Amino acid sequence: MPELTDVALMKNIRQGQIDPVYFFYGKELLLLQKALSALIKKVVSPGMESFNLQKFDSDKTTVEEIENAAEALPVMAQRKCVVVQNLNVEKLAAAQSDKLKALLKDPPPATVLVFVVTAFEVNPKNAKVKAFSTAVSKVGSVVDFSLKDKSTLVKALCEHAAKRGASLSPANASRLIERCGQSLTSLYNEVDKLCDFAGEGSEITAAHIDQSVVQTVDSSAFDLAKAVLRGQSDRALSLLGELFYQKIEPVVILGALNMSMIDLYRAKTAAAAGKKSPEILADFGYKKNVEFRVRNALNDSSKMSMSHLRACIQALYQTDAALKSTGADGRILLEELVVAMLAAR
């Protein structure tokens, strides 16, 4: 059975097409939790949750406990649901892995077994994870709740604002995404706050967004990289100061700045070779839902010097080494980094 999309999963649940085993993971936690709730409601009769719904959420959960729960019969119902949260199959001992494989090979017919990972990032390429996913897919469904692409998010945000009695244009929805990232949970929260800020029946404007929405580290880091490469020293140092004001750890700021500068460098080299956005996505392994990152990098890197980009990446490498191997103050190191990158222009 192939890996399902979250849309196909919800359709199956509504139609009562329930599999014996599921594996849910991914970064879009809002949709994951909605799907899990919908699945539980479909499987477990109202008022019977204490009898026919069992949850495990501990790194100490054993496969024997899961097996015993799955094999126990439901009470006054045809099915029961067992939800196993945050089981790390990468860390399972060989004996535990073998027992889990045996359980998945022949799951109890009266139990819907759901494995859910929300506490850490799943690596689908890991051998143990891949084997687990394959075993689940033979009898059930694997669903990666990945972040949505920008066009889908824009539509969702405009609709959410309309439900709250406010209007949000696609352009300003896009502006909000670029400031906050792609998490629907965060974006819906920000739209709710903006609706209250603008007032019922009002339009959410760019000014509202700029005044009341705090940028994510990634978004601020990209703006910081652009300011450095354009020689805008006041803006670059101001953006760095804002990140420190938000109490962001220096290593996190440096990581985000690294990613932003590498996006710009890749876009610059790709454009020089005549490559377009789809080719860059494929060549560098970007996911489709971050296409706007590539598009923005292509637009912004067109006015930047290749030699300056290379000098900045070298400075980033040196600062990364110093931050991780010396006891120097992280803030001072990053301030020196920004000044050095500005000077390299």
Entry summary:
The protein has 17 helices and 7 strands. With 345 residues, the chain is of the alpha/beta class.
Notes on the protein architecture:
With 345 residues, this protein is α/β, with parallel strands linked by helices. Helices cover 61% and strands 8% of the residues. The chain contains 17 helices and seven strands. The strands form two sheets. Strands 2-3-4-1-5 form a five-stranded parallel beta sheet, sandwiched between helices. α4 links the parallel β2 and β3. α7 packs across α8 and α14 crosses α15.
Q: What is the distance, rounded to the nearest whole angstrom, between the alpha carbons of the first and last residues?
A: 54 Å
Structural class: alpha/beta
| Beta-strand percentage range | 5-15%
**Over the alpha carbons, how many angstroms does the gyration radius reach?**
24 Å
Give the overall silhouette: globular
Low-pLDDT segments, ≥5 res: none
List the helices and strands in order.
HEHHEHEHEHEHEHHEHHHHHHHH
**Sheet with the most strands?**
5 strands, parallel
Number of helices: 17
What's the β-strand tally? 7
What would the keywords be for this entry?
alpha/beta, five-stranded parallel beta sheet, two-stranded parallel sheet
Which secondary structure elements does this structure contain, and how are they paired or packed?
Elements: H1 6-14, E1 21-25, H2 29-43, H3 49-52, E2 53-56, H4 63-71, E3 80-85, H5 94-105, E4 111-116, H6 127-139, E5 141-144, H7 150-163, E6 167-168, H8 170-180, H9 184-198, E7 203-204, H10 206-212, H11 217-229, H12 233-245, H13 250-272, H14 277-283, H15 291-301, H16 306-325, H17 330-343
Parallel strand pairs: 1-4, 1-5, 2-3, 3-4, 6-7
